[in-house]
């Protein structure tokens, strides 16, 4: 005779240990909050935009358009120069940062859309105001120094960084995820405890244990004759 799975048998352990599941989820939330509050430092990202125009170069005292220095072709080169110590060392000195240009490089990224002459400079830092200062200073220093490095003057600042957005660990997302993971762990514990529990609790348990049907049951009576 084939055994059939009754959905009630699956849900009964969850109903009996509902508070265990909730408690496990809340415990995970509490642990996550402590970790976020005491061990994770929030980080912020500020961005500024630069536009690369058709480059101009100086030849024999005359300013001419340099076809070889077209904006899109120079994007990759400009990206490397932006994140180079030649630029970031000056930024570090102007802002009196403890990091060197090489160390500052880790927090600076440059992105560019395909076939676009606009570069987006992004700076990540634990201080939102400092992230804006570094982004704006880097853009300005790059604009000033690029003429001496490549003998061209074709970079304009399109938009300065005015505020930084939080990009570090978000407490709401982390704690929501922790609750879900904790609840799943609680469900697993509920099924495990139910599997290890061999006590008889219901008529169905008697039927499953003895293999015979239950003909009748005497219900419990509360508050009868004052007992």
- CATH superfamily placement of the largest domain: EIF_2_alpha
Beta-strand level of the residues, as a percent range?
Answer: 15-25%
Structural class: alpha+beta
What's the total count of β strands?
7
Low-confidence stretches: 62-69
The H/E string reads HHEEEHHHEEHEEHH
Distance from first to last alpha carbon: 46 Å
Distinct helical segment count: 8
What's the pLDDT, averaged over the residues? 80
Write a concise keyword list for the protein shown above:
227 residues, alpha+beta, Alpha-Beta Plaits, 2 domains, five-stranded antiparallel sheet, two-stranded antiparallel sheet
Tell me what the structure shows.
- The protein folds into two domains: 74 residues, no CATH class; 123 residues, EIF_2_alpha (Alpha-Beta Plaits, 2-Layer Sandwich).
- Helix 1 packs across helix 7.
- The two termini are 46 Å apart.
- The chain is built from eight helices and seven strands; from the N terminus they run H-H-E-E-E-H-H-H-E-E-H-E-E-H-H.
- A hairpin with a 2-residue loop joins strand 2 and strand 3.
- Strands 1, 4, 5, 6 and 7 form a five-stranded antiparallel β-sheet that branches. It has a two-stranded antiparallel ribbon with strand order 2-3.
- By secondary structure, the chain is of the alpha+beta class.
- About 4% of the residues have low confidence.
